[in-house]
Task: inverse folding
């Protein structure tokens, strides 16, 4: 009885087989056969009928090959299938009747092995021929469809960014197969489309990388940092090729589309043989040799020193020995971490968008001029009033959407930062993880390029000065791996980017001491924490004891501040000594619009950027002092601040001469705060920035102009320039 | 075969450009009635909201892969008999066996021409 289900299976297969035609395989039927064979194999295992199991296994692998089209002699394949099923019936019958099978299945197995084994060798060449054949025909379908190519470029660049992030994730958790899958998939997709579009090289590289990842997925290859390096380099190569393709498509560079990938391909091939984890310093040495700064021998000598003293970095060793200057090292390091920052994800020519947004800006202004015109104001026609109101609501909606068009997620910058941290920390011999939050926060496309440099500086500082060396961290009871957190979110009309590290934090006493020494401040008395921290933005003030390769002399923070302020942004620092530092950078959402306070001086209107204003007040008469040698001062809550009379600089008449009749705006410049005296505050509004044109662009105290709601032109004040003007 | 030419085909692939490539190829061989889904989950949603007569799906997708979609379709009493063409890559051909066992109607290896695609579709429809 126990053989019943077995026989049913075999008989079922026999009848299924009738549906198979000799030359054409019917996939669903083959599927049923395969499933039956699987079940049969299980049954034979349970019943311990080895002979039958062998035949079933053989048939199953034969059938697989037939399905995969890798058997050349299809007719022979089918004959053997048929024979095999008959043989199984025979064996099954014999077992059912006598409990054993006396016949011989060896002949059959032999012929089966000959067919499948024979074909095994052919599989490869056949597959190759097949592929070539297909690529040739793919050439035919090249479709000359440029839009398809464009889509491919945009989409694959996005994918490549994803790959990069996931690769970095993978490095953090090499065991996590999800990360490998998340990298594998996009490579696979890029490869697939590249094959259709006949982009041989792109297909090639993504194919090689895909294979590599597949090996890692199957645990045939360990995920070492060397492995990650190769994947990242491959990603870079892919990006370079796609960007080149893009340039070519846009008619920019007619140079060859191909780039030299032989080196990369060799590295991929040799991944097993290469010693994992080649130290980065060696590469630094290579760069220095390439730059002609030093000879290969000197690098090798220093390498010995470094090997003897593992805590030392090659750059340090070279500097110590006087072979190179620190500048040369930092240049080489920069070269090492150089990356392509020109990839845009906006699918429309940005210029067109800019024009559109400009025109919408004009529209808004014109609209508000119409609304405020006498005729409209005094108009009694209800229909017209209603229409005008409707029109303005449509226009403000239009303005909102059009500015939105230019918004891109901050993701791409963050991703580049995490890549940067990875490269830098390797160079500094530290272990640092990156956590990102709010990557989907939108920011003006034009801002992206502008905030890139200041962010790089801050991240560099966090890596180099913020996070301690591994030994130091362990000593103070922190985990070996440092952590840098990148956070982005909207606050009002600003985008806030926070960079936090869990490093050693800022040492207030040291900063103060240094600042007094350098004459930046007179005494440390009465400064708030914020004000102390802000001292690090002073040119030349650095608390780092040692000059390191990465951040040079610790300068750079002043550059950051300038860059941020140029964008009408501002920076705040918080720090707990020993625990870490948090830097918050506020940027306006877009460069085209700023939030400003409109003020009046005499008949003129000026706009002061809201971020620069600390306070607006009308001082008491007694808080006004005219200090000999220091000029006019206003006492604002205990602090004496210089008074700046706007009308003096701009040569205009003002309404109020006495500060206690006028209004005082307490405005922050780069490193000092002053009181700007104006006649009246008109209100706060978002204004569309209009450049003053080439010939007027360097006027001190004025950054640009704007058309105000009432149609008048207002000038936007540049506090820092104004202060400089007042000190002349 | 006129009715076949009008049948509604669902393309499932996470890569938009790939969907477009397949759409273009389908147009070349006369199939105009094409909709798209970007993964298995999305595809099931489409399948349950309208009458679709043919599925062309990629293997490798986030959320729900081609094979998972295939299994879900074959397990659904409404959708069970839908023709299902699996798109796969040369390097992942061994997957095909798995798909065949799960009841795929046929498979096609990337990159393919319009002719090959046309043949595969016809073959599947003949068997139906």
Result:
């Amino acid at each position: 009885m126990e053989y019943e289900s077995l026989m049913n299976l075999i008989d079922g297969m026999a009848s299924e087989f009738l549906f198979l035609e000799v030359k054409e395989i019917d996939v669903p039927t083959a599927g049923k056969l395969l499933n039956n064979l699987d079940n049969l194999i299980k049954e034979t295992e349970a019943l311990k009928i080895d002979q039958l199991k062998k035949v079933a296994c053989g048939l199953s692998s034969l059938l697989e090959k037939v399905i995969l089209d890798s058997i050349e002699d299809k007719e022979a394949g089918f004959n053997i299938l048929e024979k095999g099923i008959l043989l199984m019936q025979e064996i099954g019958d014999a077992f059912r009747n006598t409990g054993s099978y006396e016949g011989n299945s060896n002949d059959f197995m032999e012929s089966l092995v000959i067919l499948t084994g024979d074909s095994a060798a052919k599989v490869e060449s056949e597959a190759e021929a097949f592929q070539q054949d297909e690529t040739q025909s793919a050439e035919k379908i090249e479709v000359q469809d440029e839009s398809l190519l464009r889509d491919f470029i945009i989409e694959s660049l996005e994918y490549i960014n994803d790959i990069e992030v996931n690769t970095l994730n993978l490095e953090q958790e090499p065991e996590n197969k999800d990360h490998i899958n998340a990298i594998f998939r996009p490579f696979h997709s890029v490869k697939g489309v590249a094959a259709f579009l006949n982009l041989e090289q792109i297909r090639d590289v993504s194919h090689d990388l895909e294979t590599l990842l597949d090996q890692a997925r199957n645990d045939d290859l360990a995920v070492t940092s060397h492995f990650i390096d190769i994947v990242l380099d491959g990603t870079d190569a892919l990006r370079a090729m796609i960007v080149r393709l893009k340039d070519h498509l846009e008619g920019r560079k007619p140079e060859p589309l191909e780039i030299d990938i032989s080196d990369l391909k060799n590295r991929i091939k040799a991944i097993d043989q290469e010693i994992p984890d080649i130290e980065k310093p060696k590469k630094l040495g290579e760069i220095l040799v390439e730059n002609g700064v030093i000879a290969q021998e000197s690098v090798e000598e220093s390498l010995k020193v470094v090997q003897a003293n593992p805590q030392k970095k090659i750059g340090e060793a070279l500097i110590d020995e006087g072979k190179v200057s620190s500048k040369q090292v930092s240049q080489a390091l920069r070269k090492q971490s150089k990356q392509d920052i020109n990839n845009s994800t906006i699918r429309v020519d940005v210029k067109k968008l800019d024009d559109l947004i400009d025109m919408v800006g004009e529209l808004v202004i014109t609209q508000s001029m119409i609304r405020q015109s006498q005729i409209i104001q005094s108009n009694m026609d209800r229909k017209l009033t209603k229409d005008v109101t409707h029109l303005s609501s449509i226009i403000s909606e239009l303005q909102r959407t059009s500015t939105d068009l230019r918004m891109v997620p901050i993701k791409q910058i963050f991703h580049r930062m995490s890549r940067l941290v990875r490269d830098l920390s390797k160079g500094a011999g530290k272990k640092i993880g990156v956590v990102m939050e709010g990557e989907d926060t939108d920011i003006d496309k034009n801002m992206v390029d502008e905030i890139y440099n200041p962010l790089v500086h801050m991240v560099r500082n966090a890596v180099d000065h913020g996070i301690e060396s591994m030994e130091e961290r362990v000593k103070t009871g922190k985990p070996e791996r440092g952590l840098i957190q990148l956070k982005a979110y909207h606050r009002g009309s600003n985008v806030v980017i926070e960079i936090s590290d869990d490093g050693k934090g800022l040492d207030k006493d040291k900063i103060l001491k240094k600042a007094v020494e350098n004459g930046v401040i007179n005494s440390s008395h009465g400064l708030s924490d914020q004000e102390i921290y802000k001292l690090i933005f002073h040119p030349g003030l650095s608390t780092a004891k040692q000059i390191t390769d990465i951040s040079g002399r610790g300068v750079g923070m002043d550059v950051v501040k300038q860059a941020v302020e140029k964008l009408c942004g501002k920076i705040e620092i918080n720090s707990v000594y020993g625990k870490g530092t948090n830097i918050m950078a506020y940027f306006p959402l877009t460069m085209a619009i700023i939030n400003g306070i409109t003020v009046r001086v005499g008949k003129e209107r000026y706009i002061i950027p809201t971020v620069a204003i600390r306070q607006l007040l009308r001082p008491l008469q007694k808080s006004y002092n005219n200090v000999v040698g220091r000029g006019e001062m206003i006492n604002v809550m205990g602090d004496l601040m210089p008074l700046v009379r706007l009308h003096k600089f701009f040569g205009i008449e003002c309404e109020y001469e006495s500060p206690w009749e006028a209004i005082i705006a307490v405005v922050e410049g780069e490193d000092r705060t002053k009181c700007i005296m104006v006649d009246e505050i008109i209100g706060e509004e978002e204004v569309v920035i209009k450049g003053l044109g080439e010939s007027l662009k360097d006027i001190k105290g004025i950054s640009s102009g704007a058309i105000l709601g009432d149609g008048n032109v207002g000038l936007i004040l540049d506090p820092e320039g104004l202060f400089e003007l007042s000190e002349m | 075969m006129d009715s076949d030419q009008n049948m509604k085909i669902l393309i499932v692939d996470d890569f938009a450009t790939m969907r477009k490539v397949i759409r273009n190829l389908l147009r070349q061989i006369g199939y105009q009635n094409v909709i798209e889904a970007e993964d298995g989950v999305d595809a099931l949603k489409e399948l349950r909201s309208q009458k679709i007569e043919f599925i062309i799906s990629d293997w490798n997708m986030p959320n729900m892969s081609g094979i998972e979609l295939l299994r879900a379709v074959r397990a659904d009493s409404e959708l069970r008999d839908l023709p299902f063409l699996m798109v796969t890559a040369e390097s992942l051909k061994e997957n095909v066996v798995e798909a065949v066992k799960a009841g795929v109607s046929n498979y096609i290896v990337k990159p393919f021409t319009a002719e090959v695609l046309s043949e595969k579709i016809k073959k599947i429809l003949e068997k139906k």
